Protein 1
Amino acid sequence: MPDVVFTVDQARSMRDQDVPGHNRWHPDIPPAVTVSPGSDIRVECREWTDAQIGNNDSANDVRDVDLSGAHMLSGPIAIEGAEPGDLLVVDILDLGPVPQQEGGPAPGQGWGYTGIFSKQNGGGFLTDQFPDAYKAIWDFHGQIATSRHIPGVRYTGITHPGLFGTAPSPELLSRWNTRERALIATDPDRVPPLALPPLEDSVLAGTLSGEELAAVGRDGARTVPARENGGNHDIKNFTRGSRVFYPVHVPGALLSGGDLHFSQGDGEITFCGAIEMGGFIDFHVDLIKGGMATYAVTTNPIFMPGNVEPRYSEFLSFIGIGVDHDSDTNLYNDATQAYRNACLNAIAYLEKFGYSGPQAYLLLGSAPIEGRVSGVVDIPNACCSLYLPTAIFDFDVRPSASGPVSADRGSCAVSS
Ligand code: ZN
């Protein structure tokens, strides 16, 4: 087993670990550990909300989740000799839920969850259609996930980290804050908000305290979006065997991350749409000196997808176009609207088999579905498609002359 360079006791909050992690991006958060290029390392992670969500049948915890302390990240890990302009090479050797634990109150201890955030607290891709909070608990059986809240499906997870990245330079952080504040200023009262500005509440910055911690709270970037340092990509293909090339913006690179996912569909559409868990991830780290300029990797990481993932060979695919069907209004090459419609078409179809809309929405967020940008040039309608693997269902989900087999599919967890 590689050296465990960041340890998490799942019985304690990230705040109470011997070396705490952090929940903002900021160059002044001190490294928890320094490792050499060429090292194999293990990083242990808390579930991204610091385990606010329970293994129960109510979605009240999702409705009321406090997002000011998210994402709880492990790190930063300094890499000896890394300098701005280098590429940090990160191989994902292995990852999974909390090892050897088939029970416990923290996500990752034999179970995980998918949540639909309420429109008032987080929102999601289909928040206008699904404004309330819902939840599904998933039980892990080796690599297989099943849910008492979504019976009739069983699938192999596409296990990956939702979020890893390097620390921003002071200059890069300042640019993020400027441009995100400018976006927020276009509609400051919007629900859900257009972006999340720095927030002093619940800030955690490793071992920093006092005025140094307050300074991170005032300027540190929130961890929700992907940015030039990597961050919350939620790319399901960061599976075992992946190699990611992260731009280095500060001395030591300062790699941090977490938000491990047992599985996720492309788009992570419910926002908390993966199967969320704590656990471990093993990396091999190395450097390409000066690699950013050598390979023109200046704004975002590049990566080679993993070679260990579930194999599904048959899909039922749903198409969406960039039209607002409620008002029959044409939008111009709007791929976001097109993918939203592909999702809504898939949900309407699954409802014919007895699932509720929220159950179908939770399934599309968490199962290994493929989302594709199919056409963005055929004016005015962008076209996107969603590929649903048919083998994840224990009934025949394909269309036929005999019609869908509707059954009592139970209920997902709802809020009171
Ligand atoms: Zn996540």
Protein 2
Amino acid sequence: MTGSVTVRVPAKVNVQLAVGGRRPDGFHDLANVFLAVGLHDKVTASPADHQDDRGGAGGPRLTVSGPDADHVPLDDGNLAVRAARLLAERHGRDPGVRLHIAKDIPVAGGMAGGSADAAGALLACDTLWGTRTPYPELLALCAELGSDVPFSLAGGAALGRGRGELLEPLETGGTFHWVFATADGGLSTPDVYRTCDRLREAAGGGATVESVPDPEPSLALLDALRRGDAAALAGELANDLQPAAVALRPALNATLEAGLAAGALAALVSGSGPTCAFLVKDAEAGTRTAQALRASGTCRTARPASGPVRGAEVV
Ligand code: C5P
């Protein structure tokens, strides 16, 4: 009998998120510079111990632990469940499996927590089932599950093009230190993209691929990453979704200001938010800034973490 397989998978912050126009398929072309950071979920896959009416193993069964566990769906609304089903279907095998997520990444927080669980479940099931899916195929399955899932598998630092799923690994010259301030309640990614389109239309710039310029990565930002230069990176951080996230959650302005007042080099909303990310000089500044943010009363909690870190891996 095969035992359990546990995969550790990191959160991400977008150091640049340049959003192009809305495409005919509803997605947006991106220049998305991802950095994997040291907040992790753990996904454990174990053999199914249940049967459905037809004698099969009855599909994936999910349990979740952690402070936000109540906010995580346990059915097919969970990307980890969909990941296990997709892998089973690809290999023509029974999808029965027990999945457990030990959740530490903020839920619906703009840090790719759901995507991390999908990448973790894919790798955990592939290992448990011995299906030995080649890495490029695993990446393709990740892309079917969601735009950020390939990066959760790969980790490190990468430029995501297309809707974010076409990855080019990036070189980094050192470790960058961050503080992440989480908010009460998440933001829906589709809502944030829709609001971004609405704000652009209201400003007279249009919202479609024809009216919005192609998103491009900042060469100065890629250079700062390559040199491990936090001060230079601080001047280049950019998130086109930030005005939309702040429009939906105006209280984020106070969080961003509190982190800057505490001495952070720069502040931005992480992805579609509402988590706010603060770049700091070193680990000690991270501890101090996190303390000041917690004391400010402008966030639920604040935690230091650094990156780049490795992507999904069996532990
Ligand atoms: O790919 P994923 O399922 O994570 O996307 C969630 C939603 O976010 C999409 O349905 C779409 O509304 C929006 N999105 C987008 N453009 C992207 C990525 C996501 O509009 N590049």
